[in-house]
Amino acid sequence: MRFIVVTNLSDADMAAAMPGQVARVSPTDPNGPLIPFDALEAMLGLRVQNFTLGEVLLCDDDGREVVGDGRKPSKWGCSTEEFASLDAAVACSQQVVALADGVVM
């Protein structure tokens, strides 16, 4: 087992929205309100990102998420960094998010 931090998202990281999922009204506003998707929106082909920048995942040796939906960042073209410890992964995650927000650490 290892910890993987999503360090860069890809335009390919978009999957069909399924009923029961939620997303930001504005994908560019991280503090915007969340809205639920219903079956009609999913049928219209609404797409959502699978990962968030700085997300920390516990993955198996194949790079697949152990808990949750079994997502695999490399399948969706996301760049990642691997860590043996959670502390190191969290530190990297904080740095990635800070850089994306324009904060120098």
Q: Can you describe what's shown?
A:
The chain is of the alpha+beta class and 105 residues long. The protein has one domain (2-100). Helix content is 19%, strand content 27%. The chain contains two helices and seven strands, in the order ββββαβββα. The strands form three sheets. A three-stranded antiparallel beta sheet has the order 6-1-7, covered by helices on one side. The protein has a two-stranded antiparallel ribbon with strand order 2-5. The two termini are 29 Å apart.
Q: Could you give the topology of this structure?
A:
Elements: E1 2-8, E2 14-16, E3 22-24, E4 34-36, H1 39-43, E5 47-49, E6 56-59, E7 79-83, H2 86-100
Antiparallel strand pairs: 1-6, 1-7, 2-5, 3-4
- Strand tally, please? 7
Strand order of the largest sheet: 6-1-7
Unreliable segments of 5+ consecutive residues:
none
Q: Tell me, rounded to a whole number, the average pLDDT.
A: 79
Radius of gyration: 15 Å
Helix content: 10-25%
- Which percent band covers the strand fraction? 25-35%
- When the domains are counted, the total is 1
Shape: globular
Question: What is the tally of helical segments?
Answer: 2
Tell me the structural class.
Answer: alpha+beta
C-alpha termini separation: 29 Å
Assembly classification: single chain
Largest sheet: 3 strands, antiparallel
Order of helices and strands: EEEEHEEEH
Brief write-up:
It contains two helices and seven strands.
Pick out its properties:
alpha+beta; 105 residues; two-stranded antiparallel ribbon; 7 strands; 27% strand
